Amino acid sequence: MELESFFHVAIKVEDPEPAAEFYREHLDAEVLERRRAAESDDQFAVDAVVLGIADKRVYLFDQAPYEAAGLVEEQPPGFLHFGYVVEDGIEDTFARLANDGVEIVMEPAVYGDKRIAFFVAPGDIRIELIEYLEDDSSE
């Protein structure tokens, strides 16, 4: 597996809006996106604010998407996971990880315009791999 880029950090907070305001005020964060669980029928629906800070994204969630989907027990506030972009091969990567006995939190699944999956690294650190799907709408 070759990582293309480090993409984001995800943090669980009680309420994403006041947390986002803190980052805007003190770290000059830009709000890139807001998500509302009530506006989605997706199994991963959560309230979230996506921030741009320097050259990275910070996701502020009221609960982890994999928590909302019932894939893990309730998570405490604080750090949730790192997200890395891979060019392709997420399915093969996860097959190798599973064969090596690595704990898989979520098998690869389509989420919007990407395929995502989660595994656990030493120290109980969750890592998300993100593979952007090809846009076939121009054909």
Automatic annotation (TrEMBL):
Source organism of the structure: Natronococcus occultus SP4
One Pfam family of this chain: Glyoxalase
PROSITE patterns linked: VOC
Native organism taxonomy: Archaea, Methanobacteriati, Methanobacteriota, Stenosarchaea group, Halobacteria
Keyword set includes Metal-binding: yes
One GO MF term attached to the UniProt entry: methylmalonyl-CoA epimerase activity
A biological process from GO: L-methylmalonyl-CoA metabolic process
Protein's name according to its UniProt entry: VOC domain-containing protein
Keyword check for Metal-binding: yes
InterPro entries (UniProt xref): Glyas_Bleomycin-R_OHBP_Dase, Glyas_Fos-R_dOase_dom, MMCE/EMCE_epimerase, VOC_core
Keywords: Metal-binding, Plasmid
Superkingdom of source: Archaea
Domain VOC: start-end pairs: 5-132
